[in-house]
Design brief:
heterodimer; A: 283 residues; alpha+beta; 2 domains; eight-stranded mixed sheet; 17 strands; globular; B: 88 residues; Arc Repressor Mutant, subunit A
Chain lengths: 283, 88
């Protein structure tokens, strides 16, 4: 099936509906000619690729071969449990998972395909940000923070108070420039929840969150904003891609309203922030 | 002393930011923000410099006394060593 995700035409074949059935249907675009191909294969075993290791991180090794690049994961017995093979331009991606992963196959399929999709997004000048993004009144509001800080809680408060609002993505929406406007868009890879919508909208503001017992908006210096973005944006390791991301962060700092919001779980948190964003209170 | 390979210094929104790339990102996943003095010292250390040279650089450029410059350089080096991003 071909999907159109924030303008990226991706042919993607997955094996398990566990995660994708409720997340990806809205992006189907069967008439389109795909620009990228990603297939997931379930196999009995995986042979080591004929390629040179160039980088090891956590439990994965990046390898370069003549035709493909690889990301390989081995278990404690040094058997490969998953392998991603891709062309340098990411146009062709194959993910191989060994059957013996068992119950975790659907989750690993979801995580690795998401990881590679976000690589495609970066290659297309888009930035994945760790955030829950909602659309309200034709604009996007992003709640960004590390895990367990309350992104989903704030998004849920807004959804409850403003039933006409929609969730773009509850984990990692994409940020990108279109005609000089910073946009946010949904993707099927929305973390633990299926909350996402095939929709893009101009960014109204980005709200970094901290847990608190009383709602309060704090103004941020440019230095603090840069730090917040670098903490919550998918930061590529390659210098060339990093330069692009830093440029985008600079544009966000200068051109997009960015706040630090000390948030509670209560409705007063919504009211406080809503009045700040739409009436200029507390700013 | 020299900054290890893989750390890049960039100006972002007027701020001097050091970000690790490639394998350096595995050693240190954070960022450093540098003031103007830190930037000057960092640039010296990218090509390699002794403590003495760093102190002289600050004295020459900022007209601070040697004692102050020595303390600033020591503090800066301590931070970099603490993050394991400096080769002796």
């Amino acid at each position: 099936m071909v999907y159109d995700i924030c303008g990226i035409k991706l042919r993607f074949e997955y094996n398990y509906p566990d995660f994708f059935a409720s997340r990806i249907k809205g992006y189907e675009d069967p008439g389109r000619e795909p620009e990228y191909h990603m297939d997931v294969h379930i196999v009995g075993s995986i042979n080591p690729p004929d390629a040179k290791p160039v980088l090891c991180y956590h439990d994965r090794t990046v390898m370069h071969g003549d035709k493909y690049e690889y990301i390989v994961k081995m278990d404690s017995a040094e058997e490969i449990t998953d392998l991603i093979r891709f062309t340098t331009d990411l146009r062709r991606i194959d993910i191989f998972l060994v059957q013996r992963i068992g119950k975790r196959l659907p989750e690993v399929e979801y995580l690795l395909s998401g990881m590679m999709f976000f690589e495609i997004a970066i290659a297309n000048g888009m930035i994945p940000i760790h955030a829950a993004a909602i659309e309200y009144g034709g604009e996007a509001i992003l709640f960004s923070a590390p895990s367990q800080t309350g992104k989903s809680t704030q998004a849920e408060l807004w959804r409850r108070q403003l039933p006409e609002s929609r969730t773009l993505n509850e984990d990692k929406p994409l940020l990108f420039q279109k005609d000089g406007v910073m946009m946010a868009g949904g993707t099927p890879w929305s973390g633990k929840t299926p909350e996402n919508t095939n929709l893009t909208a101009p960014v109204k503001c980005i709200v970094f969150l901290e847990k608190a017992s009383r709602a309060e908006l704090v103004s941020l210096s440019n230095q603090d904003k840069v730090k917040m973005f670098l903490r919550n944006i998918h930061r590529p390791r390659e210098e060339g891609k990093l330069a692009f991301v830093l440029k985008a962060i600079e544009s966000l700092v200068y051109n997009t309203p960015v706040y630090l919001f000390k948030a509670t779980k209560e409705t007063d948190s919504f009211t406080y922030l809503y009045h700040a964003i739409y009436r200029g209170d507390h700013l | 002393m020299k900054i290890k390979h893989g750390y890049v210094l960039r100006k972002v929104a007027g701020e001097n930011i050091v970000v690790p790339t490639e394998e350096a990102a595995l050693n240190f996943n954070g960022i450093l923000t540098l003031n103007e003095t830190g930037k000057v010292l960092w640039e010296r250390l990218q090509t390699g410099a002794s403590k003495g040279l760093l102190v002289d650089t600050l004295v020459d450029r900022y007209e601070v006394d040697e004692e102050t410059a020595t303390k600033d350089v020591a503090d800066f080096i301590k931070v970099l060593k603490g993050k394991n991003i400096l080769d002796e």
